[in-house]
Write a structure and sequence with these properties.
It contains five helices and two strands; from the N terminus they run H-H-H-H-E-H-E. The protein is mainly alpha-helical. It folds into two domains: 37 residues, no CATH class; 41 residues, no CATH class.
Length: 92
């Protein structure tokens, strides 16, 4: 099972906070043991340097980077970003 963690769930899981419910904790543990948890994407999205503040764009870029994927986009701001993202201009 894959599990995507919102920031609060990620922090609770990382810190062993009792606010994290048993069902969620078991699902996260199973995903971690299976090696398919990608909860760090949210943190990576927040840490992207020199990228505009649109949270959806930041998550898309962080996801592409985590997967080692190219991003097909026509967004001029993403195409112009100087970060290490492989991009495909969707207009050409």
């Amino acid at each position: 099972m894959s599990v995507v963690l919102d920031t609060n769930a990620l922090v609770w899981a990382f810190e062993g906070d009792r606010s994290l419910g048993g069902r969620a904790a078991r699902a996260i543990e199973q995903a971690v043991l299976e090696g398919v948890a990608h909860g760090m994407i949210g943190i990576a999205a927040n840490e992207l340097q020199n990228l505009h503040d649109d949270p959806a764009d930041r998550l898309i870029v962080a996801t592409a980077l985590a997967l080692g994927a190219s991003l097909a986009t026509s967004d001029a701001r993403l195409l112009a970003w100087t970060g290490p993202l492989a991009r495909i201009d969707a207009r050409v």
